[in-house]
Amino acid sequence: MSVTTEQLVTLSEHISYLSMPTNIGFIRFFDGAGKDCVYLIDSGNDETTGARILDFIKANFPDATLKAIINTHSHADHCGGNSYLVRETGCEVWASKGEAYLMEYPTIETQLIWGGTPIHDLRSKYLLAEACQVQRVFDGEEEISLSCENGEIRLKVISLPGHYVDQVGFLLTDTDGKRVMFAGDVLSGRNSIKKHWIQYLLDETKTKESLLKIQTVEADFYIPGHGDIVDNIEGIAELNLLAILETEDMIVDELRSPKSSEELLKAVADRSGITLKTSQFCLIGSTLRSYLTGLYESGRIEHTMEANRMLWRKIS
Predict the structure, then answer these.
(1) Nearest Cα to Cα of residue 240 among 277, 187, 196
(2) What SS3 state is found at 222?
(3) Strands, E, within 31-103: which ranges?
(4) Percent of residues in the chain assigned helix, strand, coil, to nearest 5
(5) For the whole model, what pTM was predicted?
(6) Alpha helix locations (H) across 61-119?
(7) Beta bridge partners of 28
(8) How many helices and strands in the chain, by DSSP H and E?
(9) Whole-number Å distance between alpha carbons of 79 and 275
(10) pLDDT, tens digit, for every residue of 48-81?
(11) Is 89 helix (H, G, I), strand (E, B) or coil?
């Protein structure tokens, strides 16, 4: 299915986004030399998505040059189109240090989820992006200026780890003063949370910290990685935080009786009405182990070794 003009949502003079399963930031302006330039924030899931985005650019902005893809993080649904777009256009890829490394060595993602060399079931385009080189690596929370025909567009890199190793968000300030926050997967839209109440995360503690941090970012619009745009951050950030806190409480409640991590996964899936497939078993299992770490480090649960099994239990 092609990308249509109806999916391009204009937010300010030069900043839009493509409303897609993974939202794609779209920055277009004429530079000082009068050249038509496009920058993307993330690139979607795979080569097919990358091709659809490029076809959209060619059809609607035939004189434009794709200059760079600016990635929030290295999950396949956010950087899977990178390699195709680089091959076809010669554009650059920009990312944070930790995420750049993972884009260049994407097999690490499936190894993290599996905890070793993964079974072939996990080596799909949904979890394993094609490797790509990163030309610009962000040095912390730096600010970048994009010079255009009537001023400059300011891009501030904001560190938002937790969902993944070194995830960042981007606060863009356009020439008309409008501010747009591309939040990556620190935020999920309401419908996405309803569908997937237990959201994947790598570090539960850092995810909560990033949700508190993003509430301090002032912007006119906030674009989650998945779901609808919002103009008020507090409600959607609190809903994301509530989903985490309720999952914490569910885990602690289940650990009134000792359980291994796999027994806990079954209990949580049964309680949530989830029928696990292989990928969900691995993704939610990995997420629950991250919750166990957070709850253990905060002193709410403990573990023991019994008959060669690691068992987790609530601290009374």
Answers:
(1) 187
(2) strand
(3) 36-41, 65-70, 92-96
(4) 40, 25, 35
(5) 0.95
(6) 76-79, 82-89, 97-104, 107-114
(7) 38
(8) 10, 14
(9) 28
(10) 999 999 999 999 999 999 999 999 999 999 999 9
(11) helix
